[in-house]
Amino acid sequence: MSLEKFVENALSSWMSAEGPEIDIVLSSRIRLARNFKDFTFPTSFSEEEAKNIIDLVKKRIEQEVTPEIGKLELLEIDQLQQLEKRVLVEKHLISPNLVEVSAKSACLLSENEEISIMINEEDHLRIQCLMSGLQLKETLKIANLLDDWIEESIDYAYDEERGYLTSCPTNVGTGLRASVMMHLPGLVLTQQMNHIIPAINQLGLVVRGIYGEGSQALGNIFQISNQITLGKSERDIVEDLTSVVQQIIAQERSARDALVRTSHIQLEDRVFRSYGILSNARIIETKEAATCISDVRLGIDLGYIKNISKSILNELMILTQPGFLQKYAGGPLKSHERDIRRAALIRERLNFTESSSS
């Protein structure tokens, strides 16, 4: 494995694989926040202490790793170029916060990119597992394997009453954040999403954009995750979120059916107009590209478009982000230059797909 592998390939395995409910649920993610016993938390530790944490993790990965986990590659963040960091964020392999922290930080990545362990972010460890479709229980199983493997040689900061101790009080307890990334164009087009979000919030869940807290829901993609980590078991958190997600899936399918019944021509026209823009535009901004990609993906799900795979659209969602565009260009680009390259790249990928399927 090498850094180039992680930053030059747009598609991680969780983006290209087929999973349950994949037409609506793009991915399932489990993240565990953990801190080491007898170490200062990252919010106030020194750079020397941060380095000691990384050294501890290095020693652990040099030991035998179970087959379920596989080989893990260590990347030290301060050794990466700015564009490389941005690409890893755009692929959801690391958080923006990991890049921004002043202390020494790192991450462990598995070859298939389903496993990412961030070191010295808000907590000493952020263990993240990603899988395609609605697979929260399966993803939790892998995360727990990782958690147990690390704890075999490193003691965690743990309290019998409060559970796992974390830098932020909102993570105390299980330290678990379970989330799903959902494509919800039907609910957006039927203007139901504004009513659904407050109802979700009342259930102790939160709705965010494509890159989590503080990000926009580009391309009708939303992240739904738990807010409560204390007072519930990991299993209960995952089961509660799964139940809500299944209800949202049913509502999204109902909204799509209603659009087909009542606005079939208008919907088909919207899909093919967006397809036309993606196939022919010479300049396209991030937001417009995301909207058109969402429309085309909906068209594929409804059977309007048959010669493009969903994996190509997943790839375009990542390739058209600013970091990837500049990485392929070999250096920084101005905003209008990115818009030109974005349009050219989309045309190239769509034309290649059409040629391959004909």
From TrEMBL:
It comes from the Bacteria. InterPro entries: Arg_Kinase (IPR023660), ATP-guanido_PTrfase (IPR000749), ATP-guanido_PTrfase_AS (IPR022415), ATP-guanido_PTrfase_cat (IPR022414), Gln_synth/guanido_kin_cat_dom (IPR014746). Appears to be allosterically activated by the binding of pArg-containing polypeptides to the pArg-binding pocket localized in the C-terminal domain of McsB. GO terms for biological process: phosphocreatine biosynthetic process. A motif (RDXXRA motif of the pArg binding pocket involved in allosteric regulation) lies at residues 338-343. Pfam families: ATP-gua_Ptrans (PF00217). Keywords: Allosteric enzyme, ATP-binding, Kinase, Nucleotide-binding, Transferase. Residues 24-255 form the Phosphagen kinase C-terminal domain. PROSITE patterns: PHOSPHAGEN_KINASE, PHOSPHAGEN_KINASE_C. One of its GO terms (cellular component) is extracellular space. It catalyses: L-arginyl-[protein] + ATP = N(omega)-phospho-L-arginyl-[protein] + ADP + H(+). ATP binds at residues 27-31, 92, 126, 177-181, 208-213. It is an enzyme of class 2 (transferase). One of its GO terms (molecular function) is protein arginine kinase activity. Its EC number is 2.7.14.1. Belongs to the ATP:guanido phosphotransferase family. NCBIfam families: PRK01059.1-4, PRK01059.1-5. Catalyzes the specific phosphorylation of arginine residues in a large number of proteins. Is part of the bacterial stress response system. Protein arginine phosphorylation has a physiologically important role and is involved in the regulation of many critical cellular processes, such as protein homeostasis, motility, competence, and stringent and stress responses, by regulating gene expression and protein activity. This is Protein-arginine kinase.
